[in-house]
């Protein structure tokens, strides 16, 4: 399917999930209040367990929307090419990491996860060491396949285009 | 050394401000045309561009509002940083190459110039210029307020300005900012950005090490203390909840490609191929700088909930309080300079694009030509904008983080579809662009005015960006394919 249609479907899906979540009963929504002892700190009344499913769907919608936009950006004459494929794989990888993160949080919300992984509770470790760092691999893919993004031939054609446009403008001015 | 803490911190700040003024004077001699004033002559190299982009993105929100939000909510606000990190890829794919090509092809000196060329429409140019102007006032006010708060804390901490008012620090901070921006234009901005970016990166590493040393058990001990008080605060969603956090992820991942003060700097790159090195540098420097945001926020929360430090008067005091009480005086001086640097590097970019909107884009859209003697009027407008923003900053309270997010959200919702998607998709139409901009403004401003916000902590900026994306793509697909200039089409095929 063409990237703009994927982008539209993904955006509509994301918007539907978000608007649909407004209908969730108040009792299942996360809630926080001002800390009893320290007024400038918020403390949790109810965690995110009740909104984990719409939250997960929202995460997938975000990755689909962002991924479709990125693929649209690296397309050349309607084709996504090598770089587009690598970036699409990257977003699929991110979706896997978010899935593990959500599953890990589901266990954490039930009281598990007392042991820390590299100083963080397991779901937070997935968030910081996984989801945060992973995009660097996609940037490296962009560097490795930079010619698919901008080739020397593109630059030559562009220089020629600028030259001919300026000559045209000079002629019009003259 | 400890007894000289105040004077040392103050000296670091004074040295930094003097460097900014000196850079303004240096750039003044190199700013001879409007192209120099707004586009730095289009000759920025890899390091300068990378630091200019990174330091403009981080802003005072990241250095003051960010630690404050971690202190307030736990891990929630780190999703903003995660969004920006993903946003570097979005910017690479959608903006970096395309906007640089358009800017050179059309000799564009502003984002509305690029948009007008892409859509062949002065109404889209005007709409984008108005969005920029509205966002600039809100966002610039945030930056000025953040500068003033930091400066007030520094002066009071140093025992110099015991009773100095917030209004006075607004005046001092704005004056230096205006001086170097007016004299040296964007050239002064980007070169001060390099100094500012370097200070931020070094300061972030050193302050993170200080955070680790503040607790006997290092970061693990911080985690345990925060978890003991509130387990959710140390979980991935903090106290905000999953959907609120993910709305920040979306708004900052996609929204980065719609920030005019950031993407305009992509138009100034000397060589297109430099993009290959600029993007990874952006990612790494930003990630390093977030260590301060995360470290100070969690450390202050742990210190307060463990009773080791009195509760803060407000969350925005987290960074200044940590620096004044726990960092080595020399480091505190460098970091305070870094805090000011982060704020000023964003503010100067806003002044520049705001001045371009008033002296170039809006007159162009209305009467087909910019004002006469643009360089002179650009400087006058820069001063006027700073004065207006300073007044807004002084009289809207100290909600730095909320105002900052509003500015980002406004730009993101209005400009991501029109600029980031529109520059890459020939089917995008001027009608769809105008509808998306108007819809995003109605939602964002309507929410601020009425006080109605989405439930579940979902950010209104994210919601409005979803709506504007759907409208933009949907209306473009529903209509007939618009005609596109053949040179523009050639650039879109590259």
Please, could you describe this protein's structure?
The complex is a heterodimer of chains A (174) and B (494). Chain A has helices at 3-21, 52-74, 81-109, 122-132, 135-144, 146-149, 152-173; strands at residues 31-34, 42-46. The model of chain A has no long low-confidence stretch (mean pLDDT 91). Chain A has one domain (3-173). Chain A has a two-stranded antiparallel ribbon. Chain A contains seven helices and two strands, in the order H-E-E-H-H-H-H-H-H. In chain A, 68% of the residues lie in helices and 5% in strands. With 174 residues, chain A is mainly alpha-helical. In chain A, strand 1 (31-34) and strand 2 (42-46) form a beta hairpin. Chain B has 494 residues and is mainly α. Chain B has a single domain, classed as Up-down Bundle (Sodium/glucose cotransporter). Helix content of chain B is 78%, strand content 0%. In chain B, helix 6 (122-157) packs antiparallel against helix 16 (400-421), helix 7 (166-214) packs across helix 12 (275-305) and helix 14 (329-367) packs across helix 15 (374-394). Chain B is globular. The mean pLDDT of chain B is 86.
Major sheet: arrangement of strands of chain A: 1-2
Low-pLDDT parts of chain B are none
Order of helices and strands of chain B: HHHHHHHHHHHHHHHHHHH
| Top CATH class of chain B | Mainly Alpha
Q: What gross morphology of chain B would you assign?
A: globular
Q: What is the CATH topology descriptor of chain B?
A: Sodium/glucose cotransporter
Distance, first to last CA of chain B = 59 Å
């Amino acid at each position: 399917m063409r990237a703009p249609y994927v982008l539209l479907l993904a955006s509509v899906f994301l918007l539907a999930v978000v608007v649909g979540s407004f209908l969730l009963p108040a009792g299942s929504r996360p809630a926080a209040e001002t800390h009893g002892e320290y007024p400038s700190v918020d403390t949790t009344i109810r965690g995110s367990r009740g909104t984990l499913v719409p939250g997960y769907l929202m995460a997938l919608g975000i990755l689909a929307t962002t991924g479709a936009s990125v693929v649209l950006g690296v397309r050349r004459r309607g084709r996504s090419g090598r770089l587009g494929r690598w970036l699409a794989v990257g977003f699929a990888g991110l979706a896997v990491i978010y899935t593990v993160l959500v599953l890990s949080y589901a266990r954490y919300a039930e009281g598990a996860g007392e042991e820390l992984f590299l100083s963080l509770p397991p779901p937070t470790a997935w968030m910081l060491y996984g989801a945060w760092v992973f995009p660097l691999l996609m940037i490296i893919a962009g560097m490795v396949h930079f010619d698919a993004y901008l080739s020397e031939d593109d630059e030559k054609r562009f220089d020629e285009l600028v030259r001919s446009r300026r000559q045209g403008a000079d002629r019009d001015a003259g | 050394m400890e007894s000289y803490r105040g004077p040392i911190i103050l000296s670091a700040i004074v040295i930094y401000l003097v460097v900014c003024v000196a850079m303004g004077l240096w750039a003044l001699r190199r700013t001879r045309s409007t192209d120099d004033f707004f586009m730095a002559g289009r000759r920025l190299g890899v390091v300068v561009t990378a630091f200019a982009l990174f330091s403009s993105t981080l802003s005072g929100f990241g250095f003051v509002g960010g630690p404050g939000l971690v202190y307030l909510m736990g891990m929630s606000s780190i999703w903003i940083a995660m969004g920006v990190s993903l946003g570097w890829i979005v910017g690479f794919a959608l903006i970096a190459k395309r906007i640089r090509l358009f800017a050179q092809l059309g000799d564009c000196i502003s984002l509305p110039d690029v948009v007008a060329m892409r859509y062949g429409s002065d109404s889209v140019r005007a709409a984008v210029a108005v969005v920029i102007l509205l966002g600039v006032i809100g966002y610039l006010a945030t930056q000025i307020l953040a500068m003033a708060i930091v400066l007030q804390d520094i002066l009071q901490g140093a025992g110099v300005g015991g009773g100095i008012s917030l209004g006075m620090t607004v005046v001092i901070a704005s004056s230096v900012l205006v001086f170097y921006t007016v004299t040296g234009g964007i050239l002064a901005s980007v070169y001060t950005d390099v100094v500012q970016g370097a200070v931020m990166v070094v300061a972030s590493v050193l302050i993170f090490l200080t955070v680790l040393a503040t607790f006997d058990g290092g970061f693990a001990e911080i985690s345990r203390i925060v978890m003991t008080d509130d387990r959710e605060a140390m979980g991935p969603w903090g106290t905000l909840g999953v959907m609120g956090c993910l709305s920040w992820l979306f708004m900052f991942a996609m929204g980065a490609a719609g920030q005019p003060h950031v993407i305009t700097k992509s138009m100034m790159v000397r060589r297109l191929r430099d993009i290959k090195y600029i993007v990874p540098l952006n990612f790494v420097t930003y990630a390093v700088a977030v260590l301060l945001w995360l470290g100070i926020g969690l450390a202050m929360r742990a210190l307060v909930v463990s009773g080791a430090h009195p509760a803060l008067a407000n969350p925005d005091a987290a960074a200044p309080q940590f620096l004044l009480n726990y960092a080595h005086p020399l480091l505190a001086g460098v970091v305070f300079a870094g805090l000011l640097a982060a704020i000023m590097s964003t503010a100067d970019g806003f002044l520049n694009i705001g001045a371009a909107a008033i002296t170039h884009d809006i007159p162009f859209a209305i009467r087909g030509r910019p004002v006469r003697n643009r360089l002179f009027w650009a400087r006058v407008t820069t001063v006027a904008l700073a004065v207006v923003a300073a007044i807004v900053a002084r009289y809207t309270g100290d909600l730095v983080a909320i105002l900052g997010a509003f500015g980002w959200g406004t730009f993101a919702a209005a400009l991501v579809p029109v600029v980031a998607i529109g520059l890459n998709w020939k089917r995008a139409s001027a009608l769809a662009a105008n509808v998306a901009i108007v819809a995003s403004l109605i939602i964002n401003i309507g929410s601020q005015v009425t006080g109605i916000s989405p439930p579940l902590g979902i950010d209104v900026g994210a919601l409005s960006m979803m709506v504007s994306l759907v409208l933009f793509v949907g209306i473009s697909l529903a209509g007939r394919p618009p005609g596109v200039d053949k040179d523009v089409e050639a650039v879109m095929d590259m």
